[in-house]
Amino acid sequence: MLKCSDPDGVSRVLTVDDLNLPDRLLEQFDDGAHRFVRLEDHAREDLLDRLQECLQFIGEALEGEHNVLVHCVGWASLAAHLFVIAYLMQSRQLAFQSAYDLVKAGRPVIGPNDGFVEQLRLFEQMGCQVDKDHAGYKELVERLKEETAILENSKLPAPSPRQGDLS
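and the corresponding C-alpha cells:
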C-alpha cells in the first residue's frame, strides 16, 4: 500500500510504461498521488509528446514537498531515468550529458535507447521546453510516423529496445 503516510516518504508515483499498474495497487493511492503515462521503450516512440505532462507532475509534487517515485515495470531505459534526466535538465538548467551523468552516478544500470537520447538532446536544443513548432521537433515527428508506417507495412516484428551506454 502506498498512502501519503508511506514510511519511505514516497507520496507521489509516476508510472511510465505500456501497461498501468494492476487495479489492486491503484486502489491504494490517494487521489492525485499516481499518474500513468503510456510509453513503450522503443526508438519510434515520441517521448517529447508525453514529457511535459510528466515534468509537470514531478514539479508540482516536489513543490508540494512530496517525494516522487518515477518508475517503469521492465526496461532499464524508461521512466525513472529519462524523466528524471529531463526534469534535472529543465529545473537545474543542465545539459543532457550533465544530467545523464548525474543520474548514471546514482543508478549505473541506466541505458536509454538511442531514439530517446536523440529526443532528450532535441529537448536541450529547444531550451528544455517542448516546442511543437520547432523545426527539429516537426522533423522528428515526421520521421517517427514514416518509420512506424514502414514497420507496419513490412509486417516485421518490432525491434527490441537498443540499450546504450553513454559514459
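(Above: one complete record from the training split.) The first helix runs from residue 23 to 26.
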